[in-house]
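Suppose a colleague, Dr. K., hands you the sequence of a protein chain of 96 amino acids and asks what its three-dimensional shape might be. Before reaching for any lab equipment, you can write down a predicted structure in token form. Begin with the sequence itself:
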Amino acid sequence: MIGRDSRYAHSILYRDSDGTSVGMRQRIDTTPRHDDRLHTVVEGDRLDLLAHRYLGDARLWWIICDYNDLFFPLALEPGLALRIPSREHVQMRLLD
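The predicted structure, expressed as tokens, is then:
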């Protein structure tokens, strides 16, 4: 079941021929903005911790993934520069 606060809440759900659900959601606008922050990944960084630090909510890790075209979020390499939107932009534009 997809919860009300899930990033997939407003998605169209498709079922595969074997009954497996496949979800799709609209991509967010990731155009660079003047208030974006840059974070250089260090050993031990995790996207949920970065989302909590910069965006105020660990559940928003997927926004950092979208902003940086990360496909596998568990494989953050030290030295990788991540672009992170401002908390205000996320609250006003991305979560409406």
